[in-house]
């Protein structure tokens, strides 16, 4: 029997477990609110050590205010992070209990150490890109678009799903309710246990990340881009997501709520971008061609 329901307030425990654990350091000891019960899954912490007879555990999606996670940063009050957490990492708390701040130094230090070997080459690449963009020879969107074509030839499947949702309101409703089943309606084989589709609106923007590894909806987006699996993106997308978006050429207004989804368990995510205003002017193929992988991860917003 599940212990929590949507709306319950919970604290993430700081268990002294070693080895393969599914809770990043930055979220431990934090207080959040359950948004969804995801179901029961085999504990990946058991599977990682060869214990295939391990017990099944309940999985929840839990939301945290970014201002609570990073109290020393200047962050719009409505920005949110949602992450998947297994039951044994959670404890119930009272409505009146105040959030407990903690030090994020360990998480950040590990990221800096892991990335050290790539810094010199990355500095050169970044400097060259900055010069080319500064001279008007390239735009940030052109750079990421070219990389996307090289790294993810399967993007058309995700674009096909989006266009179907844009042009068929009933399908859109099914997609938001059960992403996996709706994707399979289009005869797209899905290997992920569950696909959660999160919809952008004029008031809300979604961004997908995976801080622990590189969880990604490969069935519909192909292989993840190199930047998505980099330690830098995985750390910064939860700590300073608006700055990350700006580096992709997306300056998100503070009036728009930013929700970061940290995919660290059995869920996989797909962003449903807003359709272009002149949707009816284009054929289905033309619409699909306008959708990039960046739109479906959330580092791009407008489809033009």
From TrEMBL:
Residues 122-300 form the Nitrile hydratase alpha/Thiocyanate hydrolase gamma domain. Keywords: Metal-binding. Residues 2-91 form the Nitrile hydratase beta subunit domain. InterPro entries: CN_Hdrase_a/SCN_Hdrase_g_sf (IPR036648), CN_Hdrtase_a/SCN_Hdrlase_g (IPR004232), CN_hydtase_beta_dom_C (IPR024690), Elect_transpt_acc-like_dom_sf (IPR008990). GO terms for molecular function: catalytic activity; transition metal ion binding. This is Nitrile hydratase beta subunit. It comes from Yoonia maricola.
